[in-house]
Amino acid sequence: MKQLIETIVKPLVDYPDDVQITMDERESRVTYKLSVNAEDMGKVIGKQGRVAKAIRTIVYSAAGSHHGKRVFVDIID
After folding, report:
1. How far is CA 41 from CA 29, 30, 70, in A?
2. How confident is the model at residue 63, as a pLDDT?
């Protein structure tokens, strides 16, 4: 899943080397925390959050059941 997020985000940003994804797994949820360069934040979020919503939709769909855990994508600054 981490690789999927990288594949989606890296072509969108000007500083692909600054893309970092960490995974936080708990009992009933898995959270992927996406961090990008401050200058690229607008590109990842998009107008009215459309790009961020699209990224989340793709990840949620690809995750499927993910062993009964809910999957979340957080964009952190």
Report:
1. 25, 22, 25
2. 85
Task: Of 42, 45, 41, 6, give the one whose Cα is nearest residue 22.
Answer: 6
User: DSSP states of 14-67 as a string?
Assistant: S-GGG-EEEEEE-SSEEEEEEE--GGGHHHHH-GGGHHHHHHHHHHHHHHTTTT
Cα–Cα distance, 23 to 21 (Å, whole number): 7
CATH number of the domain to which 60 belongs: 3.30.300.20
Amino acid at 56: R
The band of 68, judged by pLDDT with boundaries at 50, 70 and 90, is: confident
Average pLDDT estimate for 7-30? 94
Domain of 17? 2-76
User: For the whole prediction, is pTM greater than 0.90?
Assistant: no
Domain count, the chain: 1
